[in-house]
Amino acid sequence: MPIINDMGTALLWLIRVGVVLRIIILLLKIMADTESKDTYGKRIKNILIFYILAESIYQIAAIVKKYFSGAPSGNIHEISQIIINLLT
Questions:
Q1: In the chain, which ranges are continuous DSSP H helix?
Q2: For the segment 28-40, what is each residue's pLDDT rounded down to a tens digit?
Q3: Are the beta carbons of 11 and 46 closer than 8 angstroms?
Q4: Gap between the Cα atoms of 22 and 66, Å rounded
Q5: ∠ CA(8), CA(14), CA(17), 5° rounding?
Q6: 23 near 45, Cβ under 8 Å?
Q7: Of 4, 12, 42, 40, nearest to 25 (Cα)?
């Protein structure tokens, strides 16, 4: 299981580095071609939205994993009952 956790962490770091590099590249393109500023601005906005979603999904997965690690036996019926109780 630690290998899967390490893979998830590595993927998140790759996403973070990729987002930073892509924003830097787009800022350089904006400085070189000021006529396409709106297009590059929209791309930067989309990259930031992607990053927020990726980070949120990772954090939600960590919360769910931590929450269900304390489940009594991991029985699907018990887990579904826990979810139903949370929703009501």
A1: 2-32, 37-68, 76-87
A2: 999 998 898 999 9
A3: no
A4: 33
A5: 145
A6: no
A7: 40
